[in-house]
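Anyone up for a design puzzle?
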């Protein structure tokens, strides 16, 4: 059953303007008639023209809104100057109520246009179905089955205009949860490398578990790629790197490594380069974002090390790629472990814990329990040292610095970091990033 109805009155053809109130009244009447048991939330999207007041725009529609008592508390008129602004505002309302199934009632001429806006501003979490405004006449129009996925028919210049409008709107939004903050390591020389670890502040993501500087989008989360791209743009501006030369690992929870300039694997958890101005990044939301820097050969790398990748040796695989590709000396490579879930919080089933116990019994606490506590940082550090990395060249503040200026526990600090372990499946993501300066 439809959870929300969006009525698009944003840009009706000129010959329909005189009938707008009648069209809206008839549409609402159909919705009310078909929703006697569970009324959907109804959002009326209307254009706020330059120089007009929002209140005045809403009053224009009031005659059509009167009399719909069952919809009254679930009916809202959203006025904005652009389709992007209106639709993004409605998305916020949907997310506040955790609504996913939406019927869009709109003029035929707006259908292809609206589908492009929706493709950019929403993810596969949501289901949309479309109906022509003048055809709404019976209850069957408010039932939903399989979402429509018709081919894009708009000219490329129209799609480019929509993309530009969305980008300009998102750039105009204020940052949430304070200023953008970047954590930096004193181990990596800043005259050679640009690097840092992000926190969750300073972006525009508003869903609580994604707010605010979420840097990863997927079909299972509510943050679309355009929002993540805007968060990345703000990070790049603050950090000083080029977002167009930004490469993030394609997570597989394994140990494959991508060599920049060579054929890119389909999936990989490590990435290395000696190219100047190319920024490498590894995400983390409990898993460890690990950064690598060789100030002698001027090469760098990044790796995503979850519990599986840790056991498979992804960090040493990244180190070995730097050695084989760029002639790095193992003793020159610096390694920094970023914010990640600590042994205070992280548990695994006992069968998986056994693998960490084999690395070092101190990697496991309460080993005899069904779900022992695991220290993936200690395991990573031990594997790096066994592989030839000098202990003093590994920064892990959970043991070396009482102030914990880099290696915070993500699960213990909800104000600073995202955590899958803490927040569940709709979690946000921070990153570690590094590049060789130009």
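Challenge accepted. My sequence:
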């Amino acid at each position: 059953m439809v959870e929300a109805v969006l009525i698009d009155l944003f840009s009706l053809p000129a010959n329909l303007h005189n009938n707008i109130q009648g069209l809206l009244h008839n549409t609402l009447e159909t919705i009310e008639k078909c929703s006697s048991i569970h009324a959907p939330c109804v959002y009326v999207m209307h254009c706020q023209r330059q120089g007009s007041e929002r209140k005045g725009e809403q009053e224009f529609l009031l005659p059509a809104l009167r009399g719909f008592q069952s919809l009254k508390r679930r009916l809202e008129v959203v006025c904005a100057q652009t389709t992007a602004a209106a639709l993004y505002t409605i998305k916020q309302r949907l997310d506040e109520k955790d609504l996913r199934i939406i019927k869009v009632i709109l003029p035929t001429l707006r259908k292809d246009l609206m589908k492009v806006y929706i493709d950019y501003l929403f993810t596969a979490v949501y289901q949309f179905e479309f109906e022509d405004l003048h055809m709404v006449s019976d209850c069957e129009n408010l039932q939903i089955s399989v979402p429509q996925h018709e081919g894009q028919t708009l000219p490329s210049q129209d799609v480019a205009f929509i993309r530009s409008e969305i980008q300009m709107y998102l750039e105009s939004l204020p940052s949430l949860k304070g200023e953008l903050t970047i954590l930096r390591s004193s181990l990596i020389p800043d005259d050679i490398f640009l690097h840092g670890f992000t926190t969750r502040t300073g972006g525009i993501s508003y869903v609580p578990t994604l707010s605010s500087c979420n840097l990863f989008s997927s079909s299972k989360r509510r943050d679309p790629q355009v929002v993540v791209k805007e968060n990345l743009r703000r990070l790049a501006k603050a950090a000083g790197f080029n977002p167009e030369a930004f490469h993030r690992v394609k997570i597989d929870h394994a140990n494959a490594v991508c060599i920049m300039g060579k054929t890119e694997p389909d999936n990989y958890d490590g990435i290395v380069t000696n190219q100047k101005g190319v920024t490498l990044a590894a995400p983390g939301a409990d898993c460890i974002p690990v950064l690598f820097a060789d100030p002698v050969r001027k090469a760098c790398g990044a790796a995503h090390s979850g519990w599986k990748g840790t056991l498979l040796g992804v960090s040493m695989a990244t180190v070995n790629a730097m050695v084989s590709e760029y002639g790095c000396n193992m003793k020159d490579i610096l390694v920094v472990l970023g914010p990640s879930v600590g042994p205070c919080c992280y548990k695994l089933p006992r069968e998986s814990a056994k693998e960490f116990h084999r690395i070092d019994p101190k990697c496991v606490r309460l080993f005899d329990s069904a779900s022992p506590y695991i220290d993936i940082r200690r395991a990573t550090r031990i594997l790096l040292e066994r592989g030839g990395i000098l202990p003093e060249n590994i920064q892990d503040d959970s043991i070396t610095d009482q102030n914990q200026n880099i290696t915070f526990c993500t699960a213990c600090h909800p104000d600073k970091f995202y955590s899958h372990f803490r927040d569940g499946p709709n979690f946000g993501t921070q990153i570690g990033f590094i590049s060789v300066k130009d």
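A detail worth pointing out: Residues 4-135+153-172 form a domain with the Rossmann fold fold (CATH 3.40.50).
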